[in-house]
Fold:
Amino acid sequence: MANMIEINGVEKHYGSFRALGPVSTGIAEGEFFSLLGPSGCGKTTLLRLIGGFDEPTLGSISIGGADMSGMPANLRPTNMVFQSYAIFPHLNVSENVAYGLKRQRLGREEERRRVDEALAQVELTGLGPRMGNQLSGGQRQRVALARALVMRPKVLLLDEPLSALDKKLREQMQVELRHLQRQIGITFVLVTHDQYEALAMSDRIAVMFGGEISQTATPKDIYQSPSSRQVADFLGGMNFLTAQEVRTAGGQFSADLPGIGKVAGKLTSAGTTGASPVIGIRPERLRIVWEGESADPVINGKVADRHYFGEVTNLAVEIEGQEKALSVVETNDFGADDIPIGSPVRLTYDRDAFVYMPS
Structure:
């Protein structure tokens, strides 16, 4: 599939401060691509450069095969949905959606047809007459999307559009936004600091730190095979275990972990082992061996703490030889929420669950 967006050696400087770059990546036509990272990592700066709200200091950006250098935002084949939806309260829904069309001087019938089409895309058919100040948070978000889609962009840019919504509505809108993107088939570029949002919605994710992209991959690959400790730590929970020795060969590693034993797995980074190699395992890849069950391998430990989250309980399990307690996530249908602090427990794990991380 051809790239809709090509970003080549892009940097953005503010005086002597380099806020972004160098960044080089491609975003495919029809892809849902997310820029993920903590505040200040450069993700919004990159989004603004793609949209033409700012110009790169170095490098180039092309969209649909055309160089965007010097091209103002209003002439680019993009549109943006901001954190603040900026819905005009004195206009009704149809008037809000049609706002950007006024400069195109379309006929009244064509304008109405385009507005009705955009409202249907976001499932707001029939809400055209409702005033902007009579909308719920989810409806306001959809109106903002319709106002962007009515301009028929090749690329839709989304700057944390769900950040103002409560948790339940946010999760609902994540599903709806992903469904909408698949339905209309245009390229979406999302900026978010919420790793779960990026994992749930994206075809690919670029994780950014310090103005640079650390890793770009599918949600599954970036979660299961992080390229560095920094990426692994940012995307969900990860147990980091210091090994006595790590051996690497042929894209595989083996390690000796105090209190756990010998483990092995696939290398996820080309980095060297260094003086303090680190092995990681996700909390959900560790499981309790209940009474009467047999398992191999087995780790013996003691529950140091627990946190109840409804459907799951997060246990902190101390292992002899490891400085930090292991985080273990167990579903509560087996009674993990009833394990007293101080209880001995046995753990097991999938043999392919460990990943190597440069220290």
